[in-house]
Amino acid sequence: MGDTVKVAVRVRPFNTREMEMKSKLVVRMNGKTTYLLNPETGKEREFAFDYSFWSNNPQDKHFVPQNEVFEKLGKSLLDNAFEGYNCTIFAYGQTGSGKSFTMVGGENNEDSYSGNSNAKESKGLIPRLCEEMFRRVNDNNDSKITTKVEASMLEIYNEKLHDLLNDESYSKSGSTSVLKIRESPTLGPYVEGLSTSAVSSFVDLSLVMAKGTKNRTIGATSMNRHSSRAHTVVTIVLTQTTIDEERMTSVDRVSRINLVDLAGSERQGKTDAVGDRLKEGSAINKSLSALGKCIIMIAGGSPTEDDDDESNEVNAEEKNEPHTSRKKGEKY
What we know:
27% of the residues lie in helices and 27% in strands. It is α+β, with helices and mostly antiparallel strands and 332 residues long. β14 (231-244) and β15 (249-261) form a beta hairpin.
């Protein structure tokens, strides 16, 4: 297995709102390095990543399409999964930055799991990864190895967990029953009552994913008319069973593949969120702040008060209270 953690950054094209505002492009990329220009000072800062994907203009010779993102990120993840490692990939960024397009694809996300030829090129990481996984399963010629695939799909909405594959959990009012996180001495943390679907082909898995995608919570804000209002987690359990005929035993190699489409961080002043949208934005920022703390701790650092800054801003605005942002170095 290669590096345990890889970080990629991707730049999308301008959307309609940004073009109407005549926004200026302040990002450029060269190889693995991303450069950000401060339009006020004219100074440029550089940041190094494992991958810098330039997807701003399809006419550029170094434009990175969906399939290339998968080639760089998805295939290595599958390599590790088939070796028995647990793997996770998630998209993080501001609302409207293109996370769902990268992870799922298409203007109509449901088309990304269908056979629609028009959506083929826009398929995101999740459907491409699922398709490649079953291609590898079907290419296995070793009669001693059998493979089982199971999938689940949940969303975290307003800090509560909902099963996207269980239609019975949805009431007529559109609300869902809330799942709870438990901890097992042997399995570790798990979601109690989360439904799991056994699938035997990419078509089966596509139907499952399309069903879950249809149940996702989305809404319109001033920054994104198809804004994800919840974090979506797709978990695929890959079990490879090897039979030892001489010893009359079998060994299971189990790996969990977590594919996460995070809702985007928000500032109320830019999204013009009120009511339910404002409450959703506050919950989104709160959970993203908690995730950031986890990443910092895993990396060997320690969270600071600044890590709560963005979440506190939305909460202050929700209560119509003043909020003063702290500055960490130069602000772009």
